[in-house]
Amino acid sequence: MDLNLLRVVDLKQKLREKGLKTSGSKTELILRLHNSQDIGSPTKSPIASPVTSPMTIPVSSPPASMAFTPASTQSHGPENDGLINMDYDVSNEKLKSLLCKMMTAVESTLKIIDKKLEKDEIQALVASIFKETVEFYKEELDVLGKEVRRKKGEVLDEKESHHRTIQEAREEIDTLESQLQIQKSKNDGIVEDLLKSRNTVKILKLECEKIIDENEATEKEMDELRQRNEDLAEKIIIYESMLKEHIEFDSRAIIKNKDIVLMKMRQLVKANQYKITQDKGSHPVPVSTSRQMQKSLGEEIIKYRRLEDEISKEKGSSIKNNEEPRTNQSNNLNNISRVQKIQVKIIADSHGRNLGKVLSDQLNQNSSSFEVKSALHPNAKFHSIVPCIENECQGMTSNDFLIIIAGTNNITKTFKYDPYNDVQKVIEYSDKNRVNIIYVTIPYRYDNTSLNGNIYYSNYIGST
Length: 464
Hints:
It contains 14 helices and four strands. By secondary structure, it is mainly alpha-helical. Among the domains are: 2-117, no CATH class; 341-464, Rossmann fold (3-Layer(aba) Sandwich). It has a four-stranded parallel β-sheet, sandwiched between helices.
């Protein structure tokens, strides 16, 4: 169907090129093209086909039994079908010659028929010849109409789909534009935040440089304070020796007061040294803290100078008493040593309640040479008791004892307490202050035996 249409269009195009008419039936188009080709060719001329076969048809015979129709269909059947269906190739020379012969025979036959037959018979004959062709073209026309309608529907569907696609694309473009505006506003905010952050970083850098300078100055001040503490410690040792040599030992109240003052000065020196080491090992010391330290040290220096004046006065008065014999001084020293008691301090949680009295009664059965004190911290854990140990160690000597009872409140069913770090801190305080420390292992629980396994674990680690 489409092939025939294309060929008709091709015929019309060729006729236009030759300047011929393009109107009329398909058969006329073919004949017109064929005649124009034969006329244009100098070597070809119309060939008259023999008319002997149609001329021999008797005139009296009926049209239906005429030899023309079967003869033409038998001898020229393929060419006739090709003419009706237009299934041929015009460029083929052989088909052109056959078509020319066939058309000549048809024209001569039609002339004879026109002379011999009536008008009605001619119409019936022509109708019978072209009936199938007409029906075929009607069917093709219906098919073409359906195809055209289908194509129109497809075109409409495509237009509608294209319209929908365009509408969706526009909506998507609008959405993207709105998102772009939102992103631009976000980017502007980010840029502003970035600028603020940069300014903040610059300010922090300047402050950091200031803090570094202040820290350097603070370190210098700390070095000076450390040197002053060392000088104070040396002077304390000197004044202790001077007191022991020159102060009259009969005035025990004076000696006791001097010992208390010296002990307080030692505690202050140790506290300052501890602060210096702690501040040096941790974060930089702020300027305000260093000023407070300077103030406290200034007060200590004032106290020290007052003490120095008192000692110098006592030194002047004690020189007069140096004329007494040495035997009295040695006896007084023995008496003082007898008066001084060994200190025993108990630091414990609630499990150390009333132990101070029991221990004091046991130690002082024969002579009251021990001074027992206890500091209880109910429901306290080991790590909360450890900071109190260093304060309690101050003022104690190598002859004194510190008893620690802690760790029971660290034991639970689901947690195994490891006392290693806490015990190590206790050992550090013992080595630092040269105090005899007794660490009591965690007592087993008779009221809750399920904890005894974890208690054994903690005691094993603490003892090793």
